[in-house]
Design a protein that fits this description.
alpha/beta; 5-stranded parallel beta sheet; two-stranded antiparallel sheet; binds 2-(1,3-oxazol-5-yl)aniline
Length: about 250
Amino acid sequence: MRLDVVTIFPEYLDPLNVSLVGKARARGQLDVHVHDLRSWTYDRHNTVDDTPYGGGPGMVMKTEPWGDALDSVLADGYETGSHAPALIVPTPSGRPFTQELAVELSARPWLLFTPARYEGIDRRVIDEYATRIPVHEVSIGDYVLAGGEAAVLVITEAVARLLPGVLGNAESHRDDSFAPGAMANLLEGPVYTKPPEWRGRGIPDVLLSGHHGKIARWRRDEALRRTTAHRPDLIERCDPKAFDKKDREM
Ligand SMILES: Nc1ccccc1-c1cnco1
């Protein structure tokens, strides 16, 4: 997978050089290119924004730098044999980013991220490129950020870990919260490791029992309890029949 990010804060994307994404890049599973939007400005102040038509607070990111940047990045990608990318526009007014969307995006050969600052990008930029490539306007949550770069890091990590070979066997995403199966849509329950006692706190006996059926049932019940407490909205999406089937297997 090829990833391109166009941003006025390229250094904000330095975390893409470490950990899971950094290792995937080193292994050639990800080809990441970070571009400084100001490389496509030609005035003395490297201007990328201006006041909004219609008035109002803040500044809007201008069309020309984005148009020149995206044309250049697309040309480079096509020249090096990449297939059509999807344009990913982090925005608070976008479609919620979910594991389902992460899976959808992980199937694409090329993602092109356009994190915006200020009040956002002039709408004509999105409208222009939506005539050529799929555009996903994506929100990572209902809160206000100063810009979309943090969202790029979140989306990139969620997508990269789904790419074949990126997660080792020990880190399988089979048991992820939100992964398909009987635990789908459930939050993960509590986890424990050595030492067996810490500051007077022990381990739930069932986890020391060696009875895999009882352990699986306990973990399922803990996940249900945690989901009911923290995310009752997810409970409605659970398939109760999957639990009955799972109970029979435990
Ligand atoms: N608040 C923001 C400001 C600028 C670009 C993206 C966001 C965003 C994305 N998901 C939630 O917020």
